[in-house]
């Protein structure tokens, strides 16, 4: 049971600096003033039918909707009566006019090779893939599991499933066979799409081998469609006779079943996405067709202020919801040019991201705070080696960004000229819920800003009553929104109890937050990451932010360990910038710094220096593993998404 009180979260994340949109940016922006934002926001709440009809008018609707929303808590039905197919909005609608020959996906492999798919080429591949899947027996309502790396074909496979009315379940390519098996079994997938291998830091990740082990334990799998990405000479694979089908051969000989997209109901299941890090039964978040597409489409357009000439790069893996919404469905439905990169951000060195931006003329960069902090640790000289003048907008996603990282991102990467949009949302929300529109609203470093159109957030006590300005509380969403999850696949009771029973009448996000006097929201992390230390409830995000504001600290992760006296003791893992030594003097300086920034009650019980922190391949710090290390116990749960297992081993060795 989550609880908060007025002391629950300290005030460290209060931030006095404000950054107004640059005049030149605001003059061309889709929403160019706070007044314009306020008017659109009011319309989205007071006249939702008119608002959503206008904002979704560019999408392809076979049949228009007759009712905007039916709501019986906790179940929503959006755009009732409508029929459509998502693939038509992402590919077919771009075939007439200039967008036809515009780059849809610019792919760069880890070894520097580049492939470009225009919208016409993407459409052709989606049609062929849909035909191939149909030839394998996939029909409307079937589930298809996709276990691939960051290659253009993963987007092709997603759109091909949508074209047939099949529900896809993309499983992150870093998951182990057991995790893949569990997700296949839970969804009842009929076909598995995979590839021979992918590249990561110069090494091959053998995806087909993992897929084979999972498929062998998944009785619902009838066929496995295999893309040969790296080739038989580098990654020899065995094809199971009667089950495995070669991607290129299947597409070359595909029937014309994919030529005409299948019209589906607005609430038809589009995809199931399993939340990462689950230690029990996989939790499959279900998103449906029309509401999800509208949410992704409209938020991409406004949050990133998309222009026809933009080259847009969302660095997230397609295995996570950010890749679904802001690399595939949102940008492609808007006709954007999207960069997709296969490899690691620091291969062969820490200049890789910046060279990609220079090489392709990237104008919009959307990445994670953990990546930004890792770049900070390597020094300003890496981004300085590349020409980043093409950038005009920066974004962050994944977890709260501390003000110092925000400032570095804006100053060093954006040259002081680019607005920064911090975004808060979740797998469950489907699309961005809060941000500051880049041409309309001042940004406050560390704050995720104001609600997006149609979103009604609140910060509340346990009983659902709103807290006052700058008081701690539970972050909830009080009204349904188009891209909201509809249920947990196969477990509606879990959907009800996990999201709708904690706070009466509202969707509980699981996050703690406060709202300042200007209506800006400050998300301080998961409620279960709020520590109770000797009666004081302390948000780990604020401890981490305080530490990263010290000039010696590159990254910090705060966790609790059991303590007989205090209930919980505060342990902080810190990585230092290269010029600083991990010694007692630095430790003492950091303890004083936390006391000065927050108060003596927030003084860590232990500061442990680390060369690196355990992270997933998407860049998120795996704090649950650090909790185990701090408590001196073996790591629990799935570690297959760890970027580097040796990091965890090193922390254990240092402990001993």
In short:
This protein has 656 residues and is α/β, with parallel strands linked by helices.
Q: Taking strands numbered 1, 2, ... along the chain, how are they ordered across the largest sheet?
A: 5-4-17-16-18-19-20
Structural class: alpha/beta
User: How far is the N terminus from the C terminus?
Assistant: 35 Å
- Helix percent reads 25-40%
At the fourth level of CATH, the homologous superfamily of the largest domain is ANL, N-terminal domain
In CATH terms, what is the architecture of the largest domain?
3-Layer(aba) Sandwich
CATH topology of the largest domain: Rossmann fold
Main sheet makeup: 7 strands, mixed
Q: What CATH first level of the largest domain would be assigned?
A: Alpha Beta
Q: Tell me the count of domains.
A: 3
Structural shape: globular
State the helix count.
20
Query: Which runs of at least 5 residues are low in confidence (pLDDT < 50)?
Result: 1-14
Radius of gyration: 24 Å
Mean pLDDT: 91
Beta-strand residue fraction: 15-25%
DSSP E strands, number: 32
Give a structural overview.
By secondary structure, this protein is α/β, with parallel strands linked by helices. It folds into three domains: 23-85 and 278-525, ANL, N-terminal domain (Rossmann fold); 86-99 and 118-262, Rossmann fold; 534-655, ANL, C-terminal domain (GMP Synthetase, Chain A, domain 3), CATH 3.30.300. It is built from 20 helices and 32 strands. Mean pLDDT is 91; it is low at 1-14.
């Amino acid at each position: 049971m989550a609880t908060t009180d007025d002391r629950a979260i300290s005030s460290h994340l209060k931030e006095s600096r404000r950054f107004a949109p640059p005049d030149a940016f605001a003059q061309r922006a889709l929403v160019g003033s706070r007044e314009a934002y306020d008017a659109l926001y009011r319309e989205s709440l007071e006249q939702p039918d008119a608002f959503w009809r206008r904002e979704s008018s560019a999408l392809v609707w076979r049949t228009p909707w007759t009712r905007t929303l039916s709501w019986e808590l906790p179940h929503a039905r959006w755009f009732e009566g409508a029929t459509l197919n998502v693939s038509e909005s992402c590919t077919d609608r771009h075939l007439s006019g200039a967008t036809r020959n515009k780059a849809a996906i610019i792919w760069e492999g880890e070894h520097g090779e580049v492939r470009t798919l225009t919208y016409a080429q993407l459409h052709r591949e989606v049609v062929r893939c849909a035909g191939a899947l149909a030839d394998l027996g996939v029909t409307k309502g079937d589930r298809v599991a996709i276990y691939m790396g960051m290659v253009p074909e993963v987007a092709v496979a997603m759109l091909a499933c949508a074209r047939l009315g099949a529900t896809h379940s993309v499983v992150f390519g870093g998951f182990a066979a057991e995790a893949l098996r569990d997700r296949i079994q839970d969804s009842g997938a009929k076909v598995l799409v995979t590839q021979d291998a992918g590249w990561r830091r110069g090494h091959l990740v053998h995806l087909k081998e993992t897929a084979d082990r999972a498929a062998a334990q998944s009785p619902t799998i009838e066929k496995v469609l295999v893309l040969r990405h790296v080739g038989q000479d580098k990654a020899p694979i065995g094809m199971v006779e009667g089950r495995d089908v070669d991607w290129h051969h299947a597409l070359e000989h595909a029937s014309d079943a994919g030529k005409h997209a299948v019209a589906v109901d607005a609430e038809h299941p589009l995809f199931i996405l399993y939340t990462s890090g689950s230690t029990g039964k996989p939790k499959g978040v279900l998103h449906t067709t029309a509401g999800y597409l509208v949410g992704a489409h409209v938020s991409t357009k406004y949050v990133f202020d998309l222009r026809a000439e933009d080259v847009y790069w969302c660095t997230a893996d397609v295995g996570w919801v950010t890749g679904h919404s802001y690399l595939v469905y949102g940008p492609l439905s808007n006709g954007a040019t999207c960069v997709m990169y296969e490899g690691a951000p620091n291969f062969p060195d820490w200049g890789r991201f910046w060279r990609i931006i220079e090489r392709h003329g990237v104008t919009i960069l959307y990445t994670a705070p953990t990546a930004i902090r890792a770049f900070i640790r390597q020094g300003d000289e890496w981004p300085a080696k590349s020409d980043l003048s093409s950038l005009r907008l920066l974004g962050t996603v994944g977890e709260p960004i501390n003000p110092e990282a925000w400032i570095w991102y804006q100053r060093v990467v954006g040259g002081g000229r680019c607005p920064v949009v911090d975004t808060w949302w979740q797998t469950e929300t489907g699309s961005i819920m809060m941000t500051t529109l880049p041409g309309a609203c001042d940004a406050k470093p560390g704050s995720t800003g104001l609600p997006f159109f149609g979103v009604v957030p609140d910060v509340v006590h346990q009983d659902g009553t709103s807290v006052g300005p700058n008081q701690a509380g539970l972050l909830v969403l009080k009204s349904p929104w188009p891209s909201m999850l509809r249920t947990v696949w196969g477990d509606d009771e879990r959907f009800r109890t996990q999201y709708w029973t904690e706070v009466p009448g509202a969707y509980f996000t699981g996050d703690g937050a406060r709202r300042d006097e200007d209506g800006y929201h400050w998300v301080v992390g998961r409620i279960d990451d709020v520590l109770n230390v000797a009666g004081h409830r302390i948000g780990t995000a604020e401890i981490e932010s305080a530490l990263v504001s010290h000039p010696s600290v590159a990254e910090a992760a705060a966790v609790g360990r059991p303590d007989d006296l205090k209930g919980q003791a505060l342990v902080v893992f810190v990585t230092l910038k290269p010029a600083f030594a991990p010694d007692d003097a630095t430790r003492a300086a950091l303890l004083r710094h936390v006391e000065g920034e927050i108060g003596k009650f927030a003084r860590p019980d232990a500061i442990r220096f680390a060369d690196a922190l355990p992270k997933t391949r998407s860049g998120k710090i795996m704090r649950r593993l650090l909790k185990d290390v701090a408590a001196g116990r073996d790591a629990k749960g799935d570690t297959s998404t760890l970027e580097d297992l040796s990091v965890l081993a090193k922390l254990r060795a240092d402990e001993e």
